[in-house]
Description:
- By secondary structure, this protein is of the alpha+beta class.
- It has one domain (4-296).
- It is 32% helix and 16% strand.
- The chain has helices spanning 18-22, 31-41, 48-51, 57-62, 69-79, 98-111, 175-183, 203-217, 240-254, 267-272, and strands at residues 42-44, 94-96, 116-123, 131-141, 145-149, 172-174, 192-193, 226-227, 282-287, 291-296.
- Strands 3, 4, 5, 6 and 7 form a five-stranded mixed beta sheet that branches. Strands 8-9-10 form a three-stranded antiparallel beta sheet, with no helix packed on it. The chain has a two-stranded parallel ribbon with strand order 1-2.
- A hairpin with a 3-residue loop joins strand 4 and strand 5.
- The longest helix is centred in the C-terminal third of the chain and has 15 residues, at 203-217.
- The chain is globular, with a radius of gyration of 18 Å.
- It starts with 17 loop residues before the first helix and ends in a 7-residue tail after the last strand.
- The model has no long low-confidence stretch (mean pLDDT 94).
Amino acid sequence: MDSDYLTQSPYSDPGPRLDALLGGAPLPRDPAALAAVVRGLLMHREERGAFGYEVPVDRLHGDAETRYAGEILRIVGERGSTVLTEPREPGARFVATCRDFAVLLCSLLRATGTPARVRAGYGAYFEAGLYDNHWVTEYWRSGRGWVLTDVQLLGGSYDVSFDPMDVPRDQFLVAGDAWRACREGRADPDTFTVATVPEIKGLALVRADVVADLAALGGVEVLPWDGWGLMEKDSADVTDDDLALLDTVAALTSAAHLTARPVRPGGVRRLLADPRLAVPREIVSHATYLGTRTVTLAAPAGP
């Protein structure tokens, strides 16, 4: 099948350790089984209470700075000898954010022949009345099309009324949907927030996620706190032309799941050629624990 989303990006590439971690066993091909594999390898860094595990500070601060699926798997391999398909004890897991769950599932889906991509947006299912900044995986299901799945929700720690392998689109808003809702007056921008850092909220946050979601559709699956171009612009300096560009991006990305085949929407490459949206080699990272710093991406960025 012709698909951009079967091709690994530098960020989703599982690297050379995948076979060794499997211990000679094949990866399952069923998306739900792959999601269970990912859930057994990772714990969210805000789940340490639910796991009853005191995460070492270096892991709490450092694991989620890992940008590449291959590096996640390297760390997993160093923390235990359990084969990849068996759930790990907390101390043998990678200490993740939502983005890490999304990228690793995307990696394994692509590796087993299922087109997949990472989406940046907002979950309505964490706190009533708020949309929490969140990243999930979208995969292609034959006869159905693009389906949202939130592997972080598996395992019983979260109380949701839907199947995490089939998240309703009114429960997870891709960033373009959130932007359009705010711009059209259908949603209050201040209800879009980062739950762990509640002062981060509003249209500037949504603007950054619109750019990040476009980049992910183009094969550059950055960290949630990375920034460049229009993401870094002060709100007072955003021009009408910038807003019009973001409206165009939002229209494209919010409709990306409507394609008849699992191929990259035609306008993604063109939009990522705009210097306000293009991902440069050097970006700014506003890490929760490590502070703001400049990061040079290890692999060439861009579509």
